[in-house]
């Protein structure tokens, strides 16, 4: 029997955003996915350090924006961006997954949960990602004509 659920979030021009859970009946955690193609704006010698700092900034920013009445302070952030293939003029796939743990039982389809998740995504999408001085985000790998 399938227990997991996923919901798409609309309104993001440069990324595909969604959230979901592995068990909608006994909701204990919610994951948020932000997927995009990133194109570097500068040349760097050590991209591993740059992507590590981006992940760190996202973690710190997430601590500031998460609603402490709904979610636990503990969360998991996984930024998957292969630093070995990053080069100027080439787009690389970025997968950002954030797992948040729910304090009290909520319905996965509740408006409160959806609104809080949208606030988190808007905040992460706005500051650490879109305002990055190292990357430009694109929804697709190829440039649209």
Task: Explain what you see.
The protein is of the alpha+beta class. It has a single domain (5-138), classed as Gyrase A, domain 2 (2-Layer Sandwich), CATH 3.30.1360. 27% of the residues lie in helices and 34% in strands. It contains 2 helices and 6 strands, in the order βββαββαβ. The chain has helices spanning 47-65, 111-130; strands spanning 5-9, 16-21, 29-40, 71-81, 92-102, 135-138. Strands 1, 2, 3, 4, 5 and 6 form a 6-stranded antiparallel β-sheet that branches. The chain is elongated, with a radius of gyration of 16 Å.
Which key features would you list for this structure?
145 residues, alpha+beta, Gyrase A, domain 2, 6-stranded antiparallel β-sheet, 2 helices, elongated
Number of structural domains: 1
CATH class reads Alpha Beta
Report the order of strands and helices: EEEHEEHE
The level of helicity is 25-40%
CATH architecture: 2-Layer Sandwich
Class inferred from helices and paired strands: alpha+beta
Rounded Rg: 16 Å
Strand content: 25-35%
Sum up the overall morphology in one term. elongated
Largest sheet: 6 strands, antiparallel
Number of helices: 2
- In the predicted model, the low-confidence regions spanning at least 5 consecutive residues are none
